[in-house]
Amino acid sequence: MFDPFVGRRTLTPEQWKARAEAIQARLQGLSIDELMRGSHGAGTPHGGAQGQRRGGYDPNQPRVPAGHPDGGEWTDDDRWTGHPLVGARFAASRELPPIGPLGGRIPLILRRALQLIEKLRSDNLLYDLFGDPTGSVSMLEIDGERFFGSNSRLPLYTSRDQAEADGLREKLLRKYPELRRNNIGEKPMDALYHAETNVLLRAARKFGGTLAGRKLEVVTDRPMCGTCPMMLPKVGLELGNPTVTFIGPRGEARTMRDGEWTDLRGYE
């Protein structure tokens, strides 16, 4: 019998909690039929002449990646077939060349950054019990030094990260009182605890609290949430107004500068 825990390191209580929350969220997204048969069960798919599922499921059929509103669902949409987090994962390399200027190299930047993120996930067991990635992870590189950020639910997120995000939240609420809600942890301020903001705060910490004058590329292995586009330009202004291009897991890219988005680019 396969033992999923063989060869794995002992998890901390925080890691177990993160896994439990991920499993709960995953189960809530399954239909009764999927729960009854087990969404990750084994068995021979029963395909028709056209390869359609009939009375079973095809384990090779792609799923919508986690982080998307339909994450984990079976899909026939070929948008996801080539997604880097569907099917076999990238083989991570310890020695990768630095990320260079954008130009037409978004696919190369994306591929190499996702390799490094995958290595970080593997080293820190950032998967649920089904082996699917949990949370979101971002990466950027400055002068050959790599910085990683995560959302606040992952065990990579530290008490210092929390304190810096809390301090940034208070600054922004004073400057933009219209953003205040009865619960300051609600949208849109939740974006300050996401991977995109976290990686910028960690990089700024290294450089005396500012990223002024820099041109940066941030790669995240999950699509950007609905509130990040509202909050990230404000975060950028607080960190010295760098020019930052955010690249999503399918190559979708947008650049911010001077408190606003300057362009939106993507590739297929």
What's the structural domain tally? 2
Order of helices and strands: HHHEEHHEHEEE
Instruction: Give the number of DSSP strands.
Output: 6
Instruction: From the alpha carbons, calculate the radius of gyration and give it in angstroms.
Output: 20 Å
What is the CATH architecture term of the largest domain? 3-Layer(aba) Sandwich
Portion in helices: 25-40%
| Proportion of residues in β-strands | 5-15%
Indicate the CATH topology of the largest domain.
Answer: Cytidine Deaminase, domain 2
Mean pLDDT: 74
Give the low-confidence spans: 1-9, 39-96
List keywords for this structure.
single chain, 268 residues, Cytidine Deaminase, domain 2, 6 helices
Description of the structure:
The chain is α+β, with helices and mostly antiparallel strands and 268 residues long. The chain folds into two domains: 13-80, no CATH class; 106-265, Cytidine Deaminase, domain 2 (3-Layer(aba) Sandwich). The chain has helices spanning 13-28, 32-37, 106-124, 159-175, 195-206, 228-238; strands at 137-142, 145-150, 215-220, 243-247, 253-257, 260-265. It has a six-stranded mixed β-sheet with strand order 2-1-3-4-5-6. The chain is globular, with a radius of gyration of 20 Å. The protein starts with 12 loop residues before the first helix and ends with a strand.
Q: Quick gist of this model?
A:
With 268 residues, the chain is α+β, with helices and mostly antiparallel strands.
